[in-house]
Design a protein that fits this description.
10 helices; globular; 187 residues; mainly alpha
Length: 187
């Protein structure tokens, strides 16, 4: 919804809001780990999944806004105007036209975000100290010791962790390719 507003509406300060969203991409994750871990420790909200999910969402949001705003800029304004002339309100325009037309872009961004979150080891390593709540990437660390490494088991584990990403790509391959192609062709 934020991408739709930034792509299609004209209002004062739109470019500043867009730059504010995009500036989140300039902040490296490592720069905020110490302040976030200190704050979360003081609040007593370490070791739970909702905090981890909020962190992932916050750091995936800028790239999502960037890609989807560009994608929604490519949707012709005439389609929206035709729906408004037919009596549709802004919510109907969004949910009945913009959202279905944006499915390839949304799927592409979702796959990129899924891969980024799936491969992230830093957040769970810092914010989850309970071994029972660890993520798959933390589980792979068990194969690597201080003085030895079980290479055969670690390779098997790495192969198993790539299976969900491959399955997701197989199911959404057509949508991903449509999303990438529609963003590559102008006009």
């Amino acid at each position: 919804m934020a991408s739709y507003v930034l792509a299609k509406f004209k209002f004062r300060g739109k470019s500043k809001i867009y730059l504010l969203f995009i500036s989140g991409m300039m902040i490296p994750i490592q720069a905020v780990l110490i302040p976030l871990s200190y704050i979360f420790g003081k609040l007593g909200i370490m070791n739970n999944y909702p905090v981890l999910i909020l962190l992932y969402a916050a750091f995936c949001f800028p790239m999502t806004i960037l890609i989807l705003t560009g994608f929604m800029n490519g949707i012709p304004t005439e389609l929206e105007e035709a729906m408004v002339i037919d009596g549709a309100n802004i919510y109907q325009v969004f949910f009945k036209m913009i959202l279905p037309l944006s499915v390839p872009g949304i799927v592409s961004v979702s796959i990129f975000n899924f891969i980024q979150v799936w491969n992230n080891l830093l957040f769970p390593l810092i914010f989850i100290s309970d071994k029972d709540k660890g993520t798959i990437s933390m589980g792979l660390l068990a194969f690597f010791g201080e003085y030895s490494t079980d290479y055969s088991s670690s390779m098997a584990g790495i192969c198993l962790t790539t299976i969900p990403v491959i399955i997701a790509y197989i199911f959404f391959q057509e949508k991903i390719e449509n999303g990438l192609m529609s963003g590559a062709v102008k006009g």
